[in-house]
Amino acid sequence: MPLLPLLALFVAAAPGAVHPNSLSVSRVVVRGALVTVQVRCQMQSVCEIMGAEADRDSNRLLSAEELDVVRADFSAYLLANFRLSVGSGGAWSRGTPLVGRLTELRPGDIEADLSGEQQWIEATLLFDHDAPVPDLLVGDTLFQDVSPEHFDVCELHFNDEPLVEARFWQGETERYYTPAMSPRVVPLLDWVGMGVRHILSGWDHLAFLLGLLVAAGSLLSVLGVITAFTLAHSVTLALAALGLVTVPGRPVEVLIAASIAYVGMANLLQRRPVARWKEAFGFGLVHGLGFAGFLAEALAGEPRRLVPLVGFNLGVEAGQFTVVLGVTLVLSLLRLVRRPGDGSADAGGERWLAPRPVRLAASIGVVLVGLYWVVERALPS
After folding, report:
1. pLDDT band for position 344 (50/70/90)?
2. pTM
3. Which of 154, 52, 55, 29 shows the shortest CA–CA distance to 107?
4. How far apart are CA 351 and CA 368, in angstroms?
5. β-pairing, 136-140 with 82-86?
6. What are phi and psi of 142, to 5 degrees?
7. What are the phi and psi torsion angles at 167 (to 5°)?
8. What is the pLDDT of residue 345?
9. Residue environment code for 31-56, b if the CB has 16+ CB neighbours within 10 A, otherwise e
10. Distance in angstroms (rounded) separating the CA atoms of residues 202 and 243
11. Which of 113, 204, 307, 327 has the least CB density, counted as fewest CB within 10 Å?
């Protein structure tokens, strides 16, 4: 059945199988000839690098003793993926690489995030130079090999110069610092790209959209549903990202999962095509808060708000439009090629965008994955 591989991807990509919203925070402090790098990363990132066996008691927390076991290997990983060079003028070939060492590795705070609770791991690297550091070329690819959507929010304290911030993610892994340089403005298209990547890796949002699409009876009803969903999540994304609305992350993520299960169940109970624009708008408000939770992390220390907000939202809409267009085209083609009696019309002669076998399989899959996420996100870590 055509949509079964897609449903299998939803289940395989459920939390626990992937690491959504992968994030770290780094702080680079230059004092004369000494450079200190503090890295604050998620416990799950450490386990992805060191292997699940790093959490020896499987309690989803890393103790000081467990960190000591992986200290040497994790130190080597950090130093290979957070590189520094001085006197380079912005080119690795002209600079002098700094040799660093891990001086501290310890468990940090446990904080609520979009998927429940997350333990942070804190590491400190120390780099020495034989003279005051004149400039600094930073290469930061932390955790991108295991989580391609990972991004690191980095701030640089260069002697007594004003704070400079940067964000490192796939496609932008280097930054050159010189004293008295102006903070780099992140272009609009970078925020658009972040929005596209976020929606395309947001399996919960995609599952919700799939549930809405297979319940529709025509392309016009699809347009109404997607418009309602877009308007709703754009409103709450803006309100939350601008700090006008603050909602704890865990309840939002549980509600998002519940919305997915609800849409799938409603599909199984309905007897005729329904344009669920009311549900799309209501639950879209909740999904917007989920988008905002992710964007808020990326906006840490960002002096602007409007450009990142507009860019990120445009990216989300572009990615969403691509998915909706692809799924709608597939469903329309299936309707064109189906044979009489295979579900082209249900009882009463109602016409559906999706053939009945596809509609039932998709709805059951959406219910199952939604319920899984409800349980997974509601349970304490």
Report:
1. very low
2. 0.55
3. 55
4. 26
5. antiparallel
6. -55, 125
7. -125, 130
8. 53
9. eeeebbbebbbbbbbbbbbbeeebbe
10. 23
11. 307
